Amino acid sequence: MNTHQAFLDAIAITLPELSVKTDSESCTHWGRDWTVHFQSNCQAVLFPKTTEEVATIVRLANEHRTPLVPSGGRTGLSAAAVAAQGEVVVSFDKMNNIGKFYAADRIVEVEAGVVTKALQEFAESQDLYYAVDFASSGSSQIGGNIGTNAGGIKVIRYGMTRNQILGLTVVTGKGDVLNLNGGMLKNATGYDLRHLFIGAEGTLGFVTKALIKLEKPPVNLTAMVLGVPDFDSIVALLDKFGKALTLTAFEFFDQIAVDKVIDAGHTKAPFDSQTPFYVLLEFEAVSDEVLETAMAVFESAAEAGLIVDGVMSQSIAQLQELWKLRECISETISVFTPYKNDISVLISHLGDFIADIEAVVKENYPDFEICWFGHIGDGNLHLNILKPATLSKEEFFAKCQTVNAFVFETVKKYHGSISAEHGVGMTKKPYLHYSRSPEEIAYMKAIKAAFDPNGIINSGKIFD
Hints:
It comes from Moraxella cuniculi DSM 21768. The chain is of the alpha+beta class. 35% of the residues lie in helices and 20% in strands.
């Protein structure tokens, strides 16, 4: 029997037109995200179409003490959108309208269920650019991006999702509707509550609309893929190219990642040489002078032994082909059930940090295949441990989790983050104390209680 039937009965009376699904297939589909650590135990899925309907749902949930979990594109990697404790899911799939465009301000109002790619295409139709981009842009939704403060491949140039959000409409855990900041660049009128909801993983309330800043489109994007002999060379190249060019991306990956992508048929090797690590950097080639500068830095770095081999795109098609080396990694390695760590430190610490992590990995995972990639331009590393065919998922995860303490102690040593862009959710919840002090966590819990006193909204995520 559904444990929240009284709540669902109240929904049927109060919002008779609201779409509700209770079949097991739908509950499983909308009650989970891309993580495989937790199973869905969703009781029902609700599909509101307006902010007012969301507010009504939250008020009734408070009345009946029914916990709610937000669901967007379900592309998260921290189990923040998994309904594992018998919750009711609120899906934003039907709140997918792109609203008013403020041309003079370069701001567009979108609902939470708008898919990232749809916003990118709208921006292009206005000769503008939505700068947040990552592999799941074709299915991720704006509300989820806001909830996790999504980053991606352009952070070095444009910043995180937080940097693009100029206003929010939210429904708090009490069912209050707040319109935050109104799209203004300047607004010095006290606390900016908008920023509490960005990155809160839906624990304070539901984002229903956002006012999003669009940028001028980049011009003549050009990419280089460079084969490098060691990780220290990557950091040195970031310094050299970063001083000489305005970079729009600076990514890295290892030979294992390249091998997996090529073996899967996504693209071909960028050049004949094989190296331990690779850099993919992108910049706007707005003039011949910029291209000459890029080549001069390349030649200087090669002479210094920082580069073994390299290639530069000569067309849009070649640019896209080079990007497949980086963008196809997550999809390619997914068949190996990877155990993912999404960590970050200051760029200044990267060389020492990666050496420490490599030592931990080699000592504790001698028989496991390790795949490295990430956004070196913003200090973000993705450590992926690939499951051997001989181990079950449960055995594999148990072995990986025993070493988490060593990995996160290293993160703490360098005052870094245990989750750079994937969020905390449930998968990283046990390790939050490595990045946040007891005092910080206490304040976070107090903020949660102020917005959601009955613990209705996405409870059990980030902290208990």
